[in-house]
């Protein structure tokens, strides 16, 4: 373990030097934001990035249990000018730079739901399993500057189990235009009553089976949060992507017996090969 830590430290020290060495070979991305992957290197046609990531995250929304999970990383993309069509994980979508300062993104994907077995400590026993469901996601970013240094972001997630909205501001660090560097976003998240009760509500049947108090949530503010994204090209084909997320729940969500923690947190690191 000591040797692994030393190796990771040495790699982190070398990353800025490596980035400088290959910067002149990189072409502009659709937008220069680390959170918006673009494997096309500024060229029209097909692009592919494949990799694996490891995430350390809450076992479920509101959980005080954390664990590691291996996830696929990357995407299949088709670029046509200022439009990129993509398939990433379980999401199929389109994003476009519709004007110099406007980025739109629409996709359809899956919500994985929740299972009683997600809690190793039996915190979800009696609540039943939630099935996967389709989600429609629409996102818009409006930059204040031509170099996407500061922006506003809005996102709406809609499904047959309710809706969620996210609104915030972001800032990009670094001078690269190839999508590498880092960025941070400060956001407020709201949800309707259906979405709130899907994650944190307890109906009469679940209450009787689990022994937890019956809980019915109203719509409104769900949380405030911050997320940080980092992307670095090791060389022409290999890149590293990292993300850290912290979400602090509103008082109504914190009062739910399902919320064993006042917050949700996640840290992830992926290694991706671009073809």
Q: What would the CATH topology be?
A: Outer membrane phospholipase (ompla), Chain C
Helicity level: 10-25%
Number of domains: 1
Whole-number mean pLDDT: 90
- What is the CATH domain class? Mainly Beta
Uncertain spans: 1-25
* Helix and strand pattern: HEEEEEEEEEHHEEHE
Rounded to the nearest angstrom, the radius of gyration is: 20 Å
Note the beta-strand portion.
over 45%
Tell me briefly what this model is.
The protein has 275 residues and is mainly β.
Secondary structure layout:
Blueprint (H helix, E strand, L loop, with lengths): L1 H21 L22 E14 L7 E15 L2 E6 L2 E9 L2 E10 L21 E11 L6 E10 L2 E12 L7 E11 L1 H8 L3 H7 L9 E14 L4 E12 L1 H4 L8 E12 L1
Antiparallel strand pairs: 1-2, 1-12, 2-3, 3-4, 4-5, 5-6, 6-7, 7-8, 8-9, 9-10, 10-11, 11-12
